[in-house]
Design brief:
By secondary structure, the chain is of the alpha+beta class. It contains twelve helices and four strands. The chain has a domain at 2-165: NADH Oxidase.
Length: 247
């Protein structure tokens, strides 16, 4: 298992071979065994396999080819509607609609998503997380007919790999693991931690292509710009309020 986790690669190209129902069910069942808040399972999983539905979802993920190319697209949602309905049926006063509980539902959703992904990879399937889900939550809510109390958190494409990419770089362990208390880093340590990432050929190419001074500026000025961050934050906050959350 450790070896499998250490070899994780995001797969964006898939063969035409479908993921069989028995295998998909087994992967999803492994997912729902994930740890969760109070065993309330504050999530729902929407599985998309229909070509027409993938076509409808594609614009919400900036038309990334893997959305239509993957045999399975899975949207993981924070879901308070189901638990609230159960409470109402039993004369219990449910009040899980604030920021704290949104965080709990988000954590639950990501835990089950990661379980599903690890289970899938253990069977030879490839997966890729899509970070576009929060950006375009309103469109996904409409496409998947998500009711109030349900918010999409992340999306995963899944299928049989049709590529073998290299491992993606990671920061050194001593930059992300702290023992007993947080160890704030010096400027020199920060430079050392990021030196390998900055020296990679693709990083150098990114800097050159975008006419920037360094890799940090590629992140701040091109990939995740302040204006975009503020726009999508505003949209997401409005969406959460519309879905019934008190922020």
């Amino acid at each position: 298992m450790i070896r499998q986790l250490s070899q994780h690669k995001s797969i964006r190209k898939y063969t035409n071979q479908p993921v069989g129902k028995e295998l998909l069910d087994a992967v999803l069942e492994a997912g729902v065994r994930a740890s969760n808040t109070g065993n309330m399972q504050l999530y729902s999983i929407v599985v998309t396999q229909d070509e027409e539905m993938k076509e409808k979802l594609s614009p919400s993920h900036f038309n990334q080819p893997m959305v239509k190319g993957a045999p399975v697209v899975i949207t993981f949602c924070a879901d308070f509607r189901r638990f609230h309905q159960w409470c109402e049926l039993n004369n219990a006063d449910a009040s899980y609609d604030d920021f704290l509980w949104l965080m709990c539902g988000t954590i639950d959703s990501m835990l089950v998503a990661q379980n599903v992904c690890v289970a899938a990879e253990s069977k030879g399937l490839g997966i890729c997380y899509l970070g576009t889900t929060l950006y375009n939550a309103p469109q996904i809510i409409d496409t998947l007919s998500l009711p109030k109390g349900v918010v999409p958190i992340t999306t995963v494409t899944m299928g049989w790999p049709d590529e073998a990419p290299a491992l993606t770089d990671r920061l050194p362990m001593n930059s992300v693991v702290h023992y007993e208390s947080y160890n704030d880093f010096t400027d020199e340590q920060i430079k050392e931690f990021y030196s390998h990432k900055e020296s990679l050929e693709e990083s150098i190419q990114f800097v050159k292509e975008n006419n920037k001074e360094n890799l940090s500026q590629v992140y701040t000025d091109v990939r995740y710009k302040r204006g975009d961050n503020e726009h999508f934050t505003k949209v997401l906050k409005e969406t959460l309020i519309a879905q019934g959350f008190k922020l």
